[in-house]
């Protein structure tokens, strides 16, 4: 392998893969340095396996909402299907893609060692030093936050990786944290046969979403037998033989495994950023082209979770595509298009970040919540309706969902949308397009939803908006 490339990418998750792909498409020689599996967290321990664990239970629940149906499932088959979609934690398929795309891959932990220099101490053939002609891009993702709970170091704990890669379903599972990971794993494992206890320090689940979203998910989890405890800190933990005791405000709850789902932080602690004047462990602050701030020379870029901007795979991949294009443009002296929504800026990071929580009901949201819009001083109107349309009624007996639009009244455009209900995930892209396109409300009136679909909720939202408040 050559030691000199146009672009050196540290981190081979989906973000790093996108950077490398878009740089290579433009004729730049590119290498990815990855110490684990090519494809990263999302492919093997996060998005893909977690959604696979959820999907069967969600599908069975959906069937049971139709009359005259009886259906069950085998948890072992769910785990086997999860293994298939993770390639049994083998990345040969991803390596084949990289080779076919003309991207070199070097196994090992990459770290910066000065300007345009990356050292890989544990490379297969011994320590290697890589030099970048054009750019180094840090795409090292994020790592779990371990909370300061007394006794935590005395017991066995699960990270999200342990949960999504579990070979057996524990009889009793404790979950600390009520964000996306906590709620999804809680429901998946309850349906797979665990008795789940979820402890959340704050007053609601999914605090990043509209309050009604968390309320509906709490109701669903409790209806299925999950013991959800809100506004309850985990005071301490202690061993209980082979099990674990969670001490929660005077109660002692014994579980077989304890999942820590208390958030993630940018993974910049061992990337060598101190060699270029940055502080390890801190997010790599970037401008909207992905250029790392505080480093001279327009050669160091970052994308994805390590920037601390948006900790979502799809948004990181979007940043990666932009960064790959920016490096290619600068390599040939092309002027960058940095206007809002231009070719070389990550404008969507600020106004249109979509997210789906794959619980049942699903939660899908994009843009600003009501509280965020009001905190920004915007003149808004909030439209709330139940998802009570013909398509939903046909979709499931007793369909119960809720939708919200947040409208900027000054510009008369949608700036936020939330949908909660069975199978609403596919609704969110239309809202994302409306926000990115800044489509006027009067023009949206002419976007006619097909009958009978759950998308009819858009018509009802627009009708409600046109009704004087």
TrEMBL record:
Coiled coil, from the record: none
One Pfam family it belongs to: Pyr_redox_2
Cofactors: FAD
Domain Pyridine nucleotide-disulphide oxidoreductase dimerisation: 353-458
Keyword Nucleotidyltransferase: no
Keyword DNA damage carried by entry: no
Annotated InterPro entries: Class-I_Pyr_Nuc-Dis_Oxidored, FAD/NAD-bd_sf, FAD/NAD-binding_dom, FAD/NAD-linked_Rdtase_dimer_sf, Pyr_nuc-diS_OxRdtase, Pyr_nucl-diS_OxRdtase_dimer
FAD/NAD(P)-binding domain sequence ranges: 5-320
UniProt keyword list: FAD, Flavoprotein, NAD
Superkingdom, natural source: Bacteria
Family, per entry: Belongs to the class-I pyridine nucleotide-disulfide oxidoreductase family.
Protein name from the UniProt record: NAD(P)/FAD-dependent oxidoreductase
Protein source organism: Pseudonocardia alaniniphila
């Amino acid at each position: 392998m050559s030691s000199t490339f146009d672009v050196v990418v540290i981190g081979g998750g989906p973000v790093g893969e996108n950077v490398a792909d878009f740089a290579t498409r433009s004729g730049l020689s590119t290498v990815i340095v990855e110490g684990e599996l090519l494809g990263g967290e999302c492919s093997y321990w996060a998005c893909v396996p977690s959604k696979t664990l959820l999907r069967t239970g969600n599908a069975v629940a959906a069937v049971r909402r139709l009359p005259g149906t009886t259906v069950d499932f085998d948890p072992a088959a769910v785990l086997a299907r999860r293994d298939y979609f993770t390639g049994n934690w083998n990345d040969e398929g991803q390596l084949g893609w990289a080779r076919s795309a003309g991207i070199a891959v070097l196994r090992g932990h990459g770290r910066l060692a000065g300007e345009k220099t990356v050292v890989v101490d544990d490379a297969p053939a011994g320590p290697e030093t890589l030099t970048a002609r054009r750019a180094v891009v840090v795409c090292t993702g994020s790592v779990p936050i371990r909370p300061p709970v007394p006794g935590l170091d005395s017991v066995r704990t699960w990270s999200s990786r342990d949960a999504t890669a579990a070979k057996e379903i524990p009889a009793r599972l404790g979950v600390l944290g009520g964000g996306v990971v906590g709620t999804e794993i809680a429901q998946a494992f309850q349906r797979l046969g665990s008795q789940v206890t979820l402890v959340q320090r704050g007053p609601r689940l999914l605090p990043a979403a509209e309050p009604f979203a968390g309320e509906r998910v709490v109701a669903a989890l409790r209806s299925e037998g999950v013991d959800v405890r809100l506004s309850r800190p985990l005071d301490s933990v202690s061993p209980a033989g082979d099990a674990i005791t969670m001490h929660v405000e005077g109660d002692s709850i014994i579980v077989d495994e304890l999942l820590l789902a208390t958030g993630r932080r940018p993974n910049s602690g061992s990337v060598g950023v101190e060699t270029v004047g940055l502080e390890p462990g801190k997010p790599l602050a970037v401008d909207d082209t992905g250029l790392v701030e505080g480093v001279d020379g327009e050669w160091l870029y970052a994308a994805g979770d390590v920037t601390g901007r948006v900790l979502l795979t799809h948004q990181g991949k979007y940043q990666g595509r932009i960064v790959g294009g920016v490096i290619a443009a600068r390599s040939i002296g092309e002027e960058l298009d940095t206007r809002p929504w231009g070719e070389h800026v990550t404008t969507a990071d600020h106004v249109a970040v979509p997210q789906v929580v794959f619980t049942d009901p699903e939660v899908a949201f994009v843009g600003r919540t009501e509280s965020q819009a009001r905190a920004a001083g915007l003149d808004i109107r909030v439209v709330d309706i139940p998802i009570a349309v013909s398509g939903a009624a046909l979709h499931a007996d007793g369909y119960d969902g809720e939708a919200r639009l947040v409208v900027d009244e000054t510009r008369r455009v949608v700036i936020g949308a939330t949908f909660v209900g069975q199978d609403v995930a596919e609704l969110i892209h239309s809202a994302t397009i409306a926000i990115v396109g800044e489509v006027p409300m009067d023009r949206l009136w002419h976007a006619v939803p097909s009958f009978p679909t759950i998308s009819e909720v858009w018509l009802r939202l627009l009708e409600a908006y046109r009704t004087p408040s």
